[in-house]
Amino acid sequence: MSRDARRLSLILLFAPFALWILLLIALPHLGILALSMREKVAPRVYEFGFGNYAEFITEPIYWNTLLRTGSMSLLVTFLALIIGFPIAYYIAKIAGKRARGALFLMCLIPLWVSDLIRAFGWILLLRESGVISRSLQWMGLTQSGIEFLYNDAAVIVGLVYTVILFMIVPLVSTLDGMGDDMIEAGYNLGGNSLTVLRRIIVPYAMPGIVAGCIVVFMMTAGSYLTPILLGGKNSSWFTEQIYNQFISRFNWEGGAAFGVLLLLFTSGVVWIGLRLSGQSLANTVARS
Amino acid sequence: MARSMTSPALLLGYRLYVGAFFVFLAAPLFAAGIFAFNDSLFPALPWQGFTLDWFFNDTEPKLGMFHDRRLLSGLYYSFVIALLVSLLSVFVGTTNAFLFVRREFPFKNALYIVMIVPLVIPGVILGISILVFASNIANAVWDAWEVEISLLRPGIVLVVLGQFSFIATITSLVITARLRKFDTSLEEAALNLGASRARVLFTITLPFLRPAMIAAGIVAFLVSFENFNTTLFLVGSESPLTITMYDRMAKIGSTPVLNAVSFFLMVGSGLLALLSVVAQRPGQPD
């Protein structure tokens, strides 16, 4: 190809990427950043200012919700890792070759069912007239129905359920690449199970662990349906505040400020996580 | 197999844990599906006998999903949206794969990270930022020329763009991974034999990418179909199925017709997911 043709084809290949990132990601995000620094002083009259952020700081319910969302998301991420790691290890290292594929596929099936249906399933199980409560009554363990819904535990169960697959999949693919001889060598050198886990398996799986944690944390903090449907009126999730500002109160400036805060907060946590674990976005999330 | 660390009792305990985990995974899906067949007005125990009314019955109060106009139109809009999103995402995913695998340009590594970023932005934020951006443009055009661009108001176009904004990352990653495995000597051989560049692309390179493109398209279709967070802010009067179902759940409460829809969707997406696994299998040893 001549140089001009090469240049032209590079531009043609670059155009879809540039349009996508510029028009749907970069400019819209700059847009909400600009909108969040705009204050309404009179109808259709605006001026630059940090009033929307000041409102966030002075109104404890807002920053409490953000802190609550953040800490519960961290808890969910931690639980997903603790519950998911043994499953991933089993699939990658202990199950036989044929069982492995089947188990992995079984892990993936709930992935393709919408959040809404998963939350709906949990509602049918957990509510007062739900399957678990009725079964307990039938077994004579309780006289009246028990409401398992609309509390933090239900939200956490639902969230762990929704995100755990995104933890297991990257873990399986990293653990899959680890030779069994590494583990054998650890034992031969006199390590016990705990040492082998701590010194060999976990360090090897680190990119997968970090990738899983990032995706799970972002998904949890940004989730909307599960906390609302399972937590009920007082779930106080931060995305709900954004929705209320935008749709119910039609306060786009305030909603945009909340959006920027959520984004800064979650990327801050992810950045700290990457720093602490010595990983980068390219070799974790991109690989899974 | 790295078994040396486990005693039989420990291994049994481990197996029980894995079994319990899969029960945990299946339980809510099972509950959502099974009550579609319960002959009762409420999706709850006790079991009143088997029925298909929640799919096919045409009268209230047990209006089946295939006679429920709003659910059917939701299904139709979801389908249209998902189809558009997957076509668009596969196209951009393919051009991105060629861009990042075959070409050299400044800031390539940084831009590759930029390509991944949409996947980790919360869907709610993608939704509001695209809503604000589109409204700003529409308002500016109105103020300047008094022309209303209804495409930039909440509706199907914005939903498609909103979902595309992060699904394109998924398709790009899938197709890029496949293109990296391509042996470029095949292309060189064809060129040496006198084929034109376009001919090489259409007879050698694209057929090699086809399994990944199909799989990426199916994944995009499914992710779009089930998306809620981004869609919620961009939806106009043409609600896709997840939004219709959510409204129904919030306003009327859970009825078994929602179980019927859930069952239908689970079977449908299960089959599609299986198809994507099959599509990726040939010539791609793991």
UniProtKB/TrEMBL annotation, chain A:
One of its GO terms (cellular component) is plasma membrane. It comes from the Bacteria. Residues 66-273 form the ABC transmembrane type-1 domain. Pfam families: BPD_transp_1 (PF00528). Gene3D superfamilies: MetI-like. GO terms for biological process: transmembrane transport. It is a multi-pass membrane protein. The keyword Transmembrane helix applies. CDD domains: TM_PBP2 (cd06261). Keywords: Cell membrane, Membrane, Transmembrane, Transmembrane helix, Transport. It is found in: Cell membrane. The chain crosses the membrane at residues 72-91, 103-125, 148-172, 208-230, 250-274. Belongs to the binding-protein-dependent transport system permease family. CysTW subfamily. This is Spermidine/putrescine transport system permease protein. It comes from Poseidonocella sedimentorum. The lineage of its organism: Bacteria, Pseudomonadati, Pseudomonadota, Alphaproteobacteria, Rhodobacterales.
Automatic annotation (TrEMBL), chain B:
Gene3D superfamilies: MetI-like. The chain crosses the membrane at residues 12-37, 75-99, 111-135, 155-179, 200-225, 257-279. The keyword Hydrolase does not apply. It is found in: Cell membrane. Keywords: Cell membrane, Membrane, Transmembrane, Transmembrane helix, Transport. InterPro entries: Bact_Polyamine_Transport, MetI-like, MetI-like_sf. It is a multi-pass membrane protein. Its main location: membrane. Residues 75-276 form the ABC transmembrane type-1 domain. Belongs to the binding-protein-dependent transport system permease family. CysTW subfamily. This is Spermidine/putrescine transport system permease protein. It comes from Poseidonocella sedimentorum.
